[in-house]
Amino acid sequence: MLAIQIENIRLRCIVGVYPRERYRRQPLRIDLRLLYADTAIIRQDDIAVGMDYAHITRDVQRWASEGRFQTIEALAGSLAHRLGSDYPQIAEVQITIRKPRALSGRAVAGVVYSWQPATD
Question: Domain of life here (predicted)?
């Protein structure tokens, strides 16, 4: 098993169920763990068979900021499915989304979602 991790992707998007959240972008933090479908990248040492971390990060930021979601669960599912369909090298996506301002005080709300493109 081989996976890449991209942690602490910062972005703002429309996500929330309260009226004030439907027009103001909320800050989010996203962590990704993407399992490779095979280990060709190890044998070939060629980015053409691998995944470009910067490109994935930009895609996630763009997809999230273009959408409008009521829940971070729906956002996690949407991002996981987009990653799985746009990056055929991915065998499994694990995405963690934290919404720092969802709760009062220092508590942070979040969700973890795992998805395998082959099972959907």
Answer: Bacteria
What number is the average pLDDT over the span 42-49? 84
Cα–Cα dist 13/85, whole Å? 22
Structural domain count of the chain: 1
**What digits encode the pLDDT tens for the residues 56-67?**
999 999 999 999
Residue 89's domain spans which residues? 3-119
